[in-house]
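Protein Record: Sequence and Backbone Structure Tokens
======================================================
Scope: a single protein chain, as residues and as a discrete description of its fold.
Tokens: labelled as protein backbone structure tokens, with as many entries as the chain has residues.
Position: the record begins directly beneath this header, with no further notes in between.
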Amino acid sequence: MRAEDVEALRKDMLAVIAASAFALRDTIGKSAFDERVMTAMGKVPRHEFVPIEFQPYAYANIPLPIGFEKTISQPFVVALMTDLLDIKADDSVLEIGTGLGYQAAILAQLARKVYSVEIIEELGQKAKQRLRQQGCSNVELKIANGYHGWSEHAPFDKVIVTAAPDLIPPPLIHQLKAGGKMVIPAGLPNRQQLMLAEKLANGRMTMKEILIVRFAQLEGTGSGL
């Protein structure tokens, strides 16, 4: 893709994200996303994080297949989930579900350190390569079942989950710092809600439903697995 084409498509993507946020202001509780989030969305080349055959559609506000029956979320949802976390520059962030690394690359612009877990080895290896090419040196990735989090580096200031369990996994709650935030889609496949969970100083969790969403199921949490 030519640089000038990418630039124009990226500007269009940001305009669509901004318009969508304004249109859904009553649902998401604000009319615009944080400037740092929008800057990160504008900086990371989304076309480098999708399979080559889908690069022409990389900046459309739609999810795209990345193989293994997984998708890269639509840009608006990536921006929304990132914004809800309210990431600070010195935060340590845990991501469950690396995919090809796009969300991790966005987080890398905002946080001190990103720990990302991907269950499918081939996706994880491709994500490592893409993140390295983009200079995301503050992202550490491992191949594992994200249901269990990454206890060695816990507790985390923020946790983001890009696949949906029926219920929030207890290990992820345990690995979240007091005062920390988690953004996670949860619920049965046809009734998922994007949730903002916050851990209070006393360890209790508060939950807020943000938006109806549709994500792939978090591996290892379904019936019979």
